[in-house]
Specification:
Blueprint (H helix, E strand, L loop, with lengths): L7 E5 L3 H12 L4 E5 L2 H10 L4 E5 L7 H10 L8 E5 L4 H9 L4 E4 L4 H26 L3 H26 L6 H17 L4 H10 L12 H4 L7 H8 L1 H9 L5 H12 L20 H16 L10 H10 L11 H9 L1 H10 L4
Parallel strand pairs: 1-2, 1-3, 3-4, 4-5
Helix pairs in contact: 2-3, 7-8, 7-13, 7-16, 8-12, 11-12, 12-13, 13-14
């Protein structure tokens, strides 16, 4: 049986009373605790010694809990550390933002000791199980590597089958999904991302619109402009998609979740659902955004004709009544324009026919 006795928990809170309170509660259950009074101190402590779990307050001077979580999850060395976010904020947007930055659990002030202990124990048991599996896999030879490759191939097949099932309710096609994989992988490579990132976004990006499964047909299939209340419902496909994918522990599901949630955010803050700006938007979603717009411009739909490659690039670069260059990360836009011929080749080689 996996035991969590002696696990180290880093408590991050600028309020010394709260830190001592949490230390007392967790210490009574056999955990070792360390404390950090700021986000900056927490990041420094994690570099020196990796805790088993982090209890992280949201509202702190300097960098807040959201930024701390983002930095931890962006680092290879700390990405696997489970985070419980402790907050007095109980609104949906705060939780969505926490999910976006990789937070595993939430607990609301005033903290219930039984709830705190239960959430800590459950996350630690999950982490221990994952660590055992990870260590086991590291010791396996070629047979296991081959099985892992076969499993990945099966995952890819199942993913595309799932996305095709979702698209039977929409006007998009299987070719669109496959093109998106190649667009995003190509653009990520052109941006200098490593092999692992490129392979992950290749499998994660097709899940961007999986949340449309939860949108009523009368809205999803509508060919006329949406009424305001219909548009509000349509926008929820982002949060629905993130919720569907939030249970996955694989890097493909985790990246898929952030893409599903944020691929309609805009660099200038005029996107949805969180109205994030600039680099608040995950890189994967910024890459996905411009690829999705390009393919939408090229593709024929019941309510519009498709543009040729040159026209689509001109609209993305110069804008039209719906699209502005300010919607996109300017660095990604520059790379996209410079490599635009690759996108034309991908579109032409993966047909809707």
């Amino acid at each position: 049986m996996l035991t969590t006795d002696g696990a180290t928990i880093l408590i991050v809170d600028d309020d010394v009373v709260n830190r001592h309170l949490f230390s007392g509660i967790l210490g009574d259950h056999g955990y070792l605790t360390e404390e950090a009074a700021s986000g900056e101190e927490a990041l420094a402590r994690v570099v020196l010694k990796t805790p088993d779990i982090i209890l992280l307050d949201v509202m702190m001077p300097g960098i807040d809990g959201f930024e701390v979580a983002q930095k931890l999850k962006e680092s290879h060395d700390s990405a696997s550390i489970p985070i419980i976010m402790v907050t007095s904020l109980n609104d949906q947007k705060s939780r969505e933002r926490g999910l976006l930055h990789g937070v595993e659990e939430f607990i609301t002030k005033p903290v219930n000791p039984v709830e705190l202990n239960t959430r800590v124990r459950n996350l630690l048991r999950l982490k221990l199980a994952n660590d055992v599996l990870k260590n086991h896999n590291m010791g396996l030879e070629e047979e296991v590597r081959q099985r892992s490759k076969d499993l990945l191939n099966s995952f890819e097949e199942a993913l595309y089958m799932l996305m095709r099932a979702a698209e039977f309710r929409d006007d998009e096609t299987g070719a669109h999904v496959r093109r998106i994989s190649y667009y995003t992988k190509s653009l990520a490579a052109s941006l200098g991302m490593d092999w692992h990132y490129c392979e992950t976004i290749f499998l994660a990006s097709p899940m961007h619109d999986i949340g449309k499964i939860g949108i009523p047909d009368k809205i999803l299939l509508k060919t006329k402009p949406f009424k305001p209340h219909e548009w509000k419902i349509m926008q929820t496909h982002t949060t629905i998609g993130a919720e569907i994918l939030s249970g996955g522990s694989s890097p493909y599901m985790q990246m898929g979740k952030e893409i599903a949630l944020a691929h309609h955010e805009r660099w200038d803050g005029r996107g949805y659902p969180l109205k994030l700006t600039g680099k608040e938007i995950p890189l994967s979603a910024r890459i996905m955004s411009i690829c999705d717009v390009y393919d939408a411009l090229r593709s024929k739909r019941p309510y519009k004709l498709g543009y040729d490659h040159d026209k689509a690039i001109k609209i993305i670069r110069d804008g039209d009544r719906n699209i502005e260059s300010a919607h996109f990360d300017p660095d990604i836009l520059d790379v996209f324009i410079s490599k635009s011929a690759d996108f034309g080749d991908i579109y032409d080689s993966i047909s809707d026919q």
